[in-house]
Design a protein that fits this description.
With 711 residues, this protein is α/β, with parallel strands linked by helices. Helices cover 39% and strands 19% of the residues.
């Protein structure tokens, strides 16, 4: 029996209605597995391949009879905007059924939420933070809400795995299961994922063999790509020629222009609009990032979606995931991405029309950015992607979840709380002794309180202070911000910093403003329109890079291959970068250490974690490290017999604790809740996230280090 015949009559009717003549490969593979088995499923295929329908067509077929009186599907999304996007899509699929679809996030009004709580039914679209809010604020109703649940669909599952937010989500889903009559099946959707064994364990650590992976290999889309290198001037500002070229490319095409920082988004938007306005085209480019007010972002999404004219959006990773802004002709990336996964995800935003190619234009402005962009692009072409990894030692998330569990249960015995952590689908990895140390510390610090007589733990006064803060529902860190207002209209946010002053001009939401007043007590900045401005300063940092990217950069810089997809400036710059390696005969399996009069530069060309571990090891041997850059160049003050030091490092028996005295304050791992942990657990979480002794020793063993004296 074909996939179509397996579906319910109402769904078959809807498919006829949509005039589909066939299913996509991923739909054909997925529909029978969901309908004919009890397994959890991960659906992995390219962007716009129909993953949402692959999951929901069979699910709707299975739940339509009971979904009017019971909540059957929890659809979890990383973004509120994605929920709003998918709402209409799923609603259309349910057209010939009576299945109600509900949304629950911070922007949904209380009357709609109340209506759902009174009659939990159908499909609920929700973010992890809103599931948390149900446990905190609807403790009396959670059993009734979740008892009939059969499916949990996790969209963009790759964005959760290996992240603090993913630990939070998996813990919450584990807690949801305590209230369901039968264990809900998890269906994960992703366009970019690798290391499926880890993904299976994330979904079901007890029976990973019960998780079916359905993968549509590769895309049949042709990929057109080009790298244009236009170096910044001495003032470090992007050259006007780059913006001119960007304007030329987007004049008749709809584009998403990705930048690596919110400030860069603002500057690019304003500059491109200046060109458009000179051509009497009006506002053609729109800024989109997390510090722009939600209403402004929604306006941008709607404008781009509905425009018949070629309009473009300039964004950070806020548009990397699948928010629908219609068909995009070309994706533009300004300077390198930190991961292959990120570039692949962004690439997938173009070429959605049938028979359309995916188009990518990369601009680079610095030598390192050119090298890293080439490395990432080559790995995309090799079809390599960063393997999913664990979030190690999630004791900080356990702190948060313990407060939440004590609130949910309105008091829980020590033994029951320990059991909850031990049976939790993700926190079970924690050692019971560590959890006991944490609970005892929480009692000591009044995050928890013991009720005498009952011998139950409840949330203490200091715990209440955390619990009642508006930021409790999230486990990820957010900077302190000012609200930016023009009169009563909110434009967006600015990171709090000493560089925000009255009279300053700035760019926000692609417009120019002058700061008129700053209310530090209420965290508000008042602005009026201006004629010029500079991009606001946002606190931000580059990402960690995988060692494979470092190795690929070294391979490129030591090779002689010409890349046909670059401009002449890029080719010339690369030839120039290669000269010193050619002159001194450095090969890709070597790493150069350049010794000069006043400093030594060690080019590690590996992953960020190995480089950092190596820095702390060097410091412990008295090497005075001045700085480390984004691609792992360690600058050392003075000269030292580095080859000898590296040999000594390899001979030493290392314990991670040996490196803690050499870790500077700003280098210490910090998460939102790690500050509340006792010192011993703070050290352990730092070691788990930032130190990798075995990988560093392996790196030292496998490579040859070449000292080159330039004195």
């Amino acid at each position: 029996m074909g996939s179509f015949e397996l579906l319910s009559k109402n769904i078959q009717r809807k498919i006829w209605d949509m005039k589909w003549d066939r299913f996509t490969p991923i739909q054909d593979q997925t529909i029978p597995v969901i309908l004919n088995s009890e397994k959890d499923v991960v659906v992995s295929s390219g962007t716009a391949s129909g993953k949402t329908e692959a999951a929901f067509l069979p699910i709707i077929s299975m739940i339509e009879k009971e979904a009017t009186t019971s909540l059957k599907v929890l659809y979890v999304s990383p973004l509120k905007a994605l929920i709003n996007n998918q709402f209409e899509r799923i609603e259309r699929l349910c057209e010939y059924t009576d299945i109600p679809i509900h949304r629950w996030h911070g922007d949904i009004n209380q009357s709609q939420k109340k209506k759902f709580v009174n009659n939990p039914s159908g499909i609920l679209q929700i973010t992890p933070e809103s599931i948390e809010s149900l446990f905190i604020n609807r403790t009396e109703q959670v059993k009734r809400i979740f008892e009939g649940l059969e499916f949990i669909v996790i969209d963009e599952i790759h964005s959760f795995i290996g992240q603090d937010r993913g630990v939070h989500l998996r813990s919450l889903l584990s807690r949801v299961e305590q209230y369901t009559k039968k264990t809900p099946r998890i269906i994960g959707l992703s366009a970019t994922i690798d290391n499926f064994e880890l993904v299976k364990r994330w979904i079901d650590f007890k029976h990973p063999e019960n998780v079916e992976i359905i993968e549509a290999i590769g895309s049949d889309k042709q990929l057109l790509y080009h790298i244009m290198h236009i170096p910044t001037g001495e003032d470090r500002k992007i050259k006007v020629e780059l913006f001119e070229d960007m304007r030329e490319l987007t004049r008749h095409q709809k584009a998403i222009i990705f930048c690596n920082s919110r400030g860069s988004v603002e500057e690019t938007t304003v500059f491109l609009n200046r060109f458009a306005e000179r051509e009497k085209m009006g506002e053609t480019y729109f800024a989109h990032h997390s510090s722009i007010d939600k209403k402004e972002r929604e306006y941008v999404e709607k404008t781009i979606m509905e425009s018949k004219l070629p309009k473009s959006v300039v964004a950070t990773s806020s548009l990397e995931l699948g928010i629908d802004i219609g068909d995009v002709d070309v994706v533009i990336q300004l300077d390198n991405t930190y991961t292959v996964s990120s570039l692949k995800q962004r690439l997938g935003r173009s070429g959605r029309k049938t028979d359309a190619s995916q188009m990518l234009q990369l601009y680079t402005t610095k030598e390192d950015s050119l090298l890293q962009s080439l490395a990432v692009m080559e790995l995309v072409l090799e079809k390599w992607i960063e393997p999913a990894s664990d979030y190690p030692f999630p004791i900080d998330i356990a702190f948060h979840q313990i407060i939440s569990i004590c609130q949910e249960t309105n008091g829980i015995t020590y033994g029951d709380l320990l059991e909850r952590i031990e049976t939790n689908h993700i926190l079970h990895t924690l050692n019971t002794l560590d959890v006991q140390v944490l609970i005892n510390h929480m009692v000591e610090k009044d995050h928890l309180e013991i009720i005498q007589g009952k011998n139950e733990l409840i949330v203490g006064i200091e715990g209440e202070r955390i619990l009642r803060g508006k930021e409790f529902y999230t486990v990820f860190m957010t900077p302190e911000e000012y609200d930016v207002l023009e009169g009563i209209r909110k434009i967006g946010n600015l990171d709090k910093s000493p560089f925000v002053n009255i009279g300053d001009n700035l760019i926000l939401a692609g417009k120019l403003w002058t700061i008129k007043d700053i209310d530090t007590d209420k965290n508000k900045v008042y602005v009026s329109k201006a004629v010029n401005g500079k991009p606001p300063l946002y606190l931000g940092s580059g990402g960690k890079i995988h060692k494979k990217i470092g190795e690929k950069m070294m391979e490129i810089v030591c090779g002689d291959r010409e890349f046909t997809y670059t401009n002449e400036e890029a080719a010339h710059t690369l030839r120039d970068m290669r000269k010193k390696y050619q002159q001194f005969g450095v090969h890709s399996n070597q790493r150069p250490i350049w010794e000069m009069k006043k400093e030594t530069i060690f080019e590690t060309f590996t992953g960020t974690t190995i480089t950092r571990t190596l820095c702390w090891m060097l410091s412990s041997f008295g090497v005075d490290i001045d700085s480390v850059d984004g691609i792992g160049r360690i600058t050392i003050e003075g000269s030292k017999d580095m080859i000898k030091v590296l040999q000594q490092i390899q001979l030493k028996e290392w314990k991670p604790e040996d490196l803690l005295p050499y870790t500077k304050e700003g280098e210490y791992y910090a998460s939102k809740y790690s500050v509340f942990l006792p010192k011993e657990l703070q050290d352990r979480i730092h070691i788990a996230h930032e130190i990798n002794i075995s990988a560093t020793l392996e790196y030292l063993k496998c490579l040859d280090f070449k000292l080159i004296k330039l004195v």
